[in-house]
Design goal:
This protein has eleven helices and 58 strands. The radius of gyration is 31 Å and the shape is globular. 11% of the residues lie in helices and 37% in strands. It has five domains: 179 residues, Galactose-binding domain-like (Jelly Rolls, Sandwich); 83 residues, Immunoglobulin-like; 265 residues, TIM Barrel, CATH 3.20.20; 78 residues, Immunoglobulins (Immunoglobulin-like, Sandwich); 255 residues, Beta-galactosidase, Chain A, domain 5, CATH 2.70.98. The termini are far apart. It binds beta-D-galactopyranose (GAL).
Length: 933
Amino acid sequence: MTYYEDFSPGSNRLPPRSWVRSSAPVLSLNGDWKFKLWPHADAPLEDPAEWDTLPVPSHWVLHGDGRYGRPIYTNIKYPFPVDPPYVPDENPTGDHFRTFTLPDWGIDRFVLRFDGVESTFKVWVNGTEVGVGKGSRLATEFDVTDLLAPGENTLLVRVHQWSAATYLEDQDQWWLPGIFRDVTLLGRPSKRIDDVWLQASFTDGHGVVTPEVSGSFPITLSVPELDVSVTWQSPSEVAPLEVGSVEPWSAESPRLYDCSVASAGESVHLRLGFRTVRIDGDQFLVNERKVMFYGVNRHETHPVLGRVFDLDHARRDLLLMKQHNINAIRTSHYPPDPRVLELCDELGLWVMLECDLETHGFEFDPSITDNPSEDVRWREQFLDRMERTVERDKNHPSIVIWSLGNECATGRNMAAMAQWTHERDPGRPVHFERDHASAYTDMHSRMYATLSELAVIATTGNASEGNLRPEEAVRQRNRPFVHCEYGHAMGNGPGSLADYQAVYEQYPRLHGGFIWEWRDHGILTKTADGTPFYAYGGDFGEVVHDGNFVMDGMVLPDGTPSPGLAEYAAVIAPIVFGDEPGTLRSRYHSIDTAAVQFTWRREDDGVEVGRGELEVFPVPAGESGRFELPPEALDVAASGETWLTLEAVSGHVVGSRQYQLSSRPSVSLVRAKGLGGAVFDPRTGSLLRIGNVEITGPRLELYRAPTDNDIRAGGWMWHERGLDRLEHRVRDILIGDDSITVSMRVAAATAARCVEVTYHWFGVEDGVALRVDAVPSQGWDCTWPRLGVRFELPSVEEASWFGTGPLESYSDSSTAAQVGRFTSSVDDLNVVYSKPQETGHRPQLRSLELDGRLRIDTVPDRTGHRPGFSLSRHTPQQIAAAAHPYELPSSDRVYLFVDNAQHGLGSAACGPDVLPQHANWPAAHTFTLLFRA
Ligand code: GAL
């Protein structure tokens, strides 16, 4: 068996240890290396003089313009035949070569460290084989002391894209081979610190440091801020240390204490965060308080670099999370670059740290039976991965849960990993979603459970997992529940985040969850004619791929936060203003509201008429409070709508709510002579212009360009029923002096089911009004994506409106939307999803102005409901036909959609469909608009 097809975890490696900041000398071996790509694994060792140049760290498929192959995207399936542990003979193999001058460190040991190489690699120093490394997102160290010589040394690293290890790395992401994390030569002093682990716990205001140190004694631990300095002469003296009164670490208050651990030859710097993690029954507690996870799944992904780490990029992303009230990360589905954990410690994020392990592709084809989780031949490699995961990152206070991996079958190898972890680190619970019976892990976990399943999980136990023996069900029921993935953020969506949050808060056993996922994985590339775009599966000519399923983040590939992220921020905001103005509830885990500034703002018809600060007595973590509103905050205007907005800010918005104090619609339709300057085509009854503003329509529209969620839900029915190709037949036109009434029948080819529509135009004071009556025939059996009318204008650049905004919103994703006055360019109204789809709907429109030339008001119905609007340079049919934004035809038109109803979003791309209360089923609709040019 070849080394890249055997079951071993590697060879000749040093035992895993903590990633720390050390005073010992280091030489970065990052930079330009010589590179040669072979089409197969068993290539000769060549003279590198003629090779190309490739930067390290990198993925070779993201360099060389296709000369070194291209990225491949698959979700569950392996991109080659499932034949473990064998891989195809066509196995791209990259030889990486460089020289370096051995520094004169006066040191006796040298360690060569690789922080991440995908997937299996072999190393030679000065022509002598060093060892083999596996575990792409785990660190590997080799002792190379005896192979180095003074002066120039050579280093050759042969990296195989496919290996037996690939079977354990089937995460849903791009396949990106290469030396993609740092390569370093470490000088190891003779009097060194071999490894250190400082567990800093917190009880009743006091800190205890439990040290585990190996190396050359005496060793001194100091925490200057706590006046702690203790020297141990020998390992037997190392013992837990009470450090007196400390401030605890939490995601909200990430208090860190600088600390050093020093031997005669090396000093290691750590930052202590005092916190105690504990499970009590079905409660997950940190510092004795329940933690609710407002989390996201975070992959390592960068549009240009792939999984190569970029500190600024990572920091910006984590700050963006914090600014959106996110408090937790699951490192899906492998340990990130070690610096990510330093950032989490410092910025404050609860972390579920996951091992680099997924074998999902074994589930893809039912004929595959030899799942690695149960197969003892893989046991050593499973355990090795978990040990390296825990050992590397064990010092970080932000890590509060270890996760064994993702989407492997349950089995004895998983159980062995859990057992090892429990023994090694009793201070953190172990998670693995597929341990449905809670046989060896500490939390019950699911992905994409529906709301009703959650209610069952939270009460009688999880029936849907089936086949659980009664005692297993009991065990599972007595574990804290965490939703390790939910809210699939693919394209426009997800819907129902507020519904999920309500359920999490209803049942004590539930601990929130982690949105799938933080960021789209689009790779910045170019079309043949040089147009840049973000690529997804299939864009690199892959034989098998999973299309745009890799574009499912709350942040677009270019870093733009999506409306879904704004929605999440609003849903999970730490300050929740109560139904009654002057009340609030805190969702904070451990801080009070002392640092929060509270303000009020009052608007009459969207125009600010007052604002001020509010005095709110600090509300303790997790509690409720009351505060006074000044009388002028609650004044009501004589006409129009009055809104009170309360806002809580602590660096960013941490809570906001609007209260409608009065609603006296100001639109009243007083009939008048003429048609307000509107001109119609006498043959079709269609509007041609109003005054000198060219505008044609209306045209009934039932179709929207399916969102990614629509496509995987009832969206195919919309095409089946022809909603995208409706035909419009004029049945009757009635032209009067001050009105025109057009009756139409709208239906699709082959179908008898139809919608009868009447457009009734009539003159009103300073304008023309349109009443739309739409009545469906019998026989409709699918939802309607929208019920609205479309107008066409030659061009519009800017829209100002009084309604909901600033971003798009839909009935099941409307927590972030506020009522107010907004202005935007037409292009900025819409989100550039990497796969074009429905975007830009803003419900409850009061009034819209286009380029200051045309004004359209809506009239509320008896329930106060009003239509919403969107503006687009393309029709839904054009948008649906485009796979990428660059495929949209150029356009000199603008389409205005006024929708009386839109279907919700749901998250059926992976999870539940639109809830019944947000679904748009065929029904009769009437709505009235007022046009003024
Ligand atoms: C889950 C999986 C994730 C991702 C997601 C769908 O099953 O754990 O890695 O594939 O579905 O996008």
